[in-house]
Amino acid sequence: MALLEVNDVSKIFPGVRALDQVSFTLQPGEVHALVGENGAGKSTLIKVLTGVYQPDGGELSYRDAPAQFGTPMDAQQAGISTIYQEVNLVPLMSVAQNLFLGREPRTGLGLIDRKRMDREAREILTGYGVTTDVRRQLGTLALGAQQMVALARAVMVDAKVVIMDEPTSSLEPREVQTLFGVIRDLHARGIGIVYVSHRLDELYQICDTVTILRDGKLVHTGKLADLERIKLVSLMLGRDMAEVRREGATAFSGAATGDTDAPPVLRVRKLNSRHKLHDVSFDVRPGEVVGLGGLLGAGRSETIKAIGGAYHLDSGDIQVDGKDLKKPTPVRAVEFGIAVQPEDRKAEGIVPGLSVRENIALAVLPRVSRFGFVSDSKVNEIVDRYIKRLRIKASSPDQAVGDLSGGNQQKVLLARLLATDPKVLLLDEPTRGIDVGAKAEVQSLIDELAAEGLGVVLVSSDAEELVEGSGRVVVLRDGVVVGTLTGDQVTTEDLMATIATEATREH
Amino acid sequence: MTMGLASEPSAIVVEDVRKAERTDRVVGTIQRQGALAVLIVVVLIALATFPNFRSLDNAATILVAAAPPMLIALGMTFVIITGGIDLSVGSLYVLGGVLAAWASQYGILAAFLLPLAVCGAIGVANGLLIAYTRMAPFIVTLAALLGARGLMRAISSEGSDTYLVQNDAFRKLGNGSFLDIGYQVWLVAALVVIGMVVLARSRFGSSVYAVGGSEDAASLMGVPVRRTKVWVYVLSGLLAGLAGAINAAKLGSGVTVLGTGMELDAIAAVVIGGTLLTGGAGTIAGTIAGVLLLGVIQNLINQVGNVNSNWQQVISGTFLALVVVAQTYLVRLRRVT
Description:
The structure holds two protein chains of two kinds.
Chain A: E1 4-13, E2 16-26, E3 31-35, H1 42-49, E4 57-62, E5 65-67, H2 72-78, E6 80-83, H3 95-100, H4 114-126, H5 143-156, E7 161-165, H6 173-188, E8 192-196, H7 200-206, E9 209-214, E10 217-223, H8 229-237, H9 241-247, E11 266-273, E12 277-284, E13 289-293, H10 300-307, E14 315-320, E15 323-324, H11 330-335, E16 338-341, H12 345-349, H13 356-368, E17 369-370, E18 373-374, H14 376-389, H15 406-418, E19 424-428, H16 436-451, E20 455-459, H17 463-469, E21 472-477, E22 480-486, H18 492-506
Parallel strand pairs in A: 3-8, 3-9, 6-7, 7-8, 13-20, 13-21, 16-19, 19-20
Antiparallel strand pairs in A: 1-2, 1-4, 4-5, 9-10, 11-12, 11-14, 14-15, 17-18, 21-22
Helix pairs in contact in A: 13-14, 13-15
Chain B: H1 11-49, H2 56-81, H3 89-103, H4 108-133, H5 137-155, E1 163-164, H6 168-175, E2 177-178, E3 181-182, H7 183-201, H8 203-213, H9 215-220, H10 225-251, E4 253-254, H11 262-272, H12 284-304, H13 311-336
Helix pairs in contact in B: 1-12, 1-13, 2-7, 2-8, 2-10, 2-11, 2-12, 3-4, 3-5, 3-10, 4-5, 4-10, 6-10, 7-8, 8-10, 11-12, 11-13, 12-13
């Protein structure tokens, strides 16, 4: 008896067949991985399941009866809960209000029982490792904690089906374990889970079955344990298995160490920021990719932001090409040749409503304008060059960036950074949330840029990406540099060992 | 692959969390109670400097004068918390007054029901257009402002016909008092209390905050976004019509020349009261403080006598600018932590 069944569902948008006769079955107590590249149709399928979109063809059946969800509310009331990739809660409302919105406990008079709500919220959230004051505004919590609140909310609604869209993308490893604990609990209670993630390790750790979509079509469904990793990747990419195997897990060609005799293009000395950074120092040579390793919260993003002038520093020296960058601000950092790709590309990077051309042009306007007037032909020339150079897939330079896939958005952002003619490129999670194919492309781009002589600082939570992409890895823990891996030491084992040994020594 | 190492929260992190929580509380309090604090300071200064301010009579005068603006600002608070704006309320206020005065010949009930019905209907139209066609509230309610003003002028022959209040009971309601405080103040106070309970303690109130805080999230969380939007504009229209009616009762006629710019005063009071113009946060207690603050400033300028009363607007404008700057700063402070 299937819990949720989708038969031959199609969804057509102008010019795109987002779902093409896709079928999907979820059993009670099953953890079902839904995978595919960006644009494969995962999000569309989820939105059809949750009443956001109405299918153009095919049918849904839920608990053995034909079902139709006109609104997200209908789906939610039927017992289908969703946690979206971007935390979808109300940041200005309190944690407890977010948890109970629409289901607040009420007093005899029909009024919301605040005391009971706060108390129950506290009890529920403790089970998810969130121990903050539940009356705080949700938006003031760390992203991981917000995600946990979203999860707690989904689970709370007597859900029969929980859909998780990249639930771990903003979680710390410790929080991921908490999440998996919750998933196992749901599994034991007979709740069906649809789990969307790009992290293969997680899929194999937690999922029973897998459904693979590609270009809106179903390409495979079955037991996950029976499916080799390499086969899974090849099905997602639609590429030849041998080719995938030959290319390895990441697209990096090897350690970009640059010219070991050249003077450093970026020299960072004793960066200090209260509670976050303590005497962080390192060098980057031209053509070198230096990875910043460590757990979430170790100070990697802070270091990058501080060098880019977007994070407060109490003290420290930064030199670019031998010139002192004193009191860095974002504008001065750009003048010195520092380009920063922020971690949250939606909030801090691209302007989704503007076109690809306009987004790239933002960075070059100062260079192509004379007396405040902009030369269109010069802008177009630069834009076209980068669209080609970075292989940005857009219907035209005038397409809005918000309509592009995550991978292409990232490339537009990279194009904008490169258009400022930087000497140093600081990349914070450049491949987060983008599909495997685009990931590989971004990775080879990083390689190419380094080969052209740029100094690159790379932050990635993906340890494999970090060690394969970096010529050297500077390991941070709690804002302190605890070690530097060079040459043969640049392996995931050494990286973890460095973090772990330092961790135990302190206690 | 990711690193599967658990990291214990260090003492530094815990201290950071505590500090963040403390900052959040302090900033939140300033946001909510700032207008009240300023009001208290202004009142204390006024008490010390203006002997005439210090009378119960004067306090009652301030409250009676503040009653209609308070009703309009009450509705506006709901609207602005949803992230919208209602520019039509000034026109609806005048229209409501004229309709109430005219209808008073058919009894006190008619004097209330007609303005409520007409202004409520315009509120429904505003709400439906905004919620279902996704037109900008600014434009929709601007159209309603013009339309309602036109309607008022049409039924009053270009504003030259003044309808006198025919009903004694209705007139008494506008001029009588209980415990030396005008009836309309009691009515408004009761409605404000109901409004506070609804906003803070009902599911509708939660929906209002959720819609303004993040419309997409609210809709994904199953909040009836459209219905909530329609209701806040209906509420705003009804309250503006009621404000017009009680003003007509007080003046004894439907005055056609008042009310221009009332919507802007209401918006100013709401924003001064700590409600974010971008939606998602705000309180009625703040709005009360905002309305009274503007009322007290007006009253003080009248007390001084030889000061041009237009200075009141200069002072209100300055307050508004200061509050908006402070809000921007406070919101940022809260986010950083």
